Amino acid sequence: MSGRIKIALVLLLPLLFFIYGAEVGAARVKDIAFVEGVRPNQLTGYGLVVGLTATGDKSSATYTTQSIANMLNRMGMKLDPKAIRVKNTATVLLTAELPAFAKPGTKIDVLLSSLGDASSLMGGTLILSSLKGSDGKVYAVAQGPIALAGYSAGGASSSVTKNHQTVAKITDGAIIERELPLVMNNPDRFNLVLRHPDFTTAGRLATVINTRFEADIAFPKDAGRISVSVPEEHKSNIVSYISLIEALNVKPDTVSKVVVNERTGTVVMGENIRISTVAISHADLSIEIKTQYLISQPAPFSSTGDTVVQPVDTTTVEEGESRLIILPGNATLGEVVRALNFLGVTPRELVAILQAIKAAGALQAEMEII
Questions:
Q1: 325 and 339 in contact (C-beta within 8 Å)?
Q2: What is the Cα–Cα distance from 17 to 207, expressed in whole angstroms?
Q3: Could you report the per-residue pLDDT of 173-221, keeping only the tens digit for each?
Q4: Residue 97 to residue 277: CA distance in whole angstroms
């Protein structure tokens, strides 16, 4: 065996082990479940965007003028809100997501949405604003310049706009000021929560964990939660213990479903769909109506007679070759697709056929129309 062949085999062996060693369709535990209590939290706030080029709120937006007056009053200037013109200022609603375990000083993105009748937030700057949680406490503050991907140009008679001009995001525009405490009620046990609850998946996940640690430390409490105990040797480093569990591979189970979008004719089908014995007939019917005009006019140099236009309608009916196909009982997804392709159906026709199969009780799957 030559040296090049040996080198190639050495390089290919790990790849082959990776491809054939992992279970087909398996997913990591961290991709299908999370530790109960470890979750992000929503933050909201209210702010002012200044520095706009006459694209801000109109004077009719009284809450904008009042907000400007309140801000200037805190700076030591007493102004009447009615005397303020706000075409260069816009009020915005701020939203952000506080990640779990985020520490003070960490920066997060903040989304700005116009509250008033501003036409564009391009070129503006967000003034220091607080972001609060559902408990009313301030967890972050946001401030910074706004950059929009797009443009808006034109005059009174015509204009051109690209992308949405009244919603913007400031990347790393908010700084976390308060840490959200995370309390685990029982340090000896925690729960894994499935992102898509399923009894079969919950049972498989518990089995995989028990097999990995060779002990009965996990059991499913219901379709969405798996209780996991912490062995004595891992209590001193529970982070490493959870990391080991998250790296395990589990094959999740799903409900057979057909998702249909009638507007676009899109159909997405799962792998476990079964169809009972059913016959499908598909035929094309084309009706074409043409109108031709026959013109009758007097002979040349004739002193009498009128030109007459006589319409003549011609109707042609063309019916395509009808095809009848029988799907055997317990047909798989591949057989269904091949059969429908044999009928030459379009995506929109496929939607109608699947709905008819479901109405006939032959589709052994859930159908969801969006």
A1: yes
A2: 23
A3: 999 999 887 766 567 889 999 999 999 999 999 999 999 999 999 999 9
A4: 50
Q: Where are the alpha helices (DSSP H) in the chain?
A: 3-21, 29-32, 62-74, 199-213, 238-246, 333-343, 347-359
The span from the CA of 244 to the CA of 106, in Å, is: 27
Residues near 123 by Cβ (< 8 Å), separated by ≥ 6? 51, 52, 53, 146
Residue 189 near residue 168 (C-beta atoms within 8 A): no
What are 307-345's pLDDT values in tens digits? Answer: 666 666 555 545 555 555 666 656 665 666 666 666 667
* Of the candidates 184, 228, 181, 185, the residue with the CA atom closest to the CA atom of residue 206: 228
DSSP string spanning 90-143? EEEEEEEEE-TTPPTT-EEEEEEEE-SS-S--TT-EEEEEEEE-TTS-EEEEEE
Contact predicate 127/146, CB 8 Å:
no
* Predicted structure pTM score: 0.65
Q: 3-class DSSP state for residue 201?
A: helix
CB atoms within 10 A of CB 369: 10
CA–CA dist 259, 266 (Å, integer): 8
Q: How is the chain split into domains, by residue range? A: 41-150+159-176, 184-250, 258-285+320-369
DSSP state of 83: G
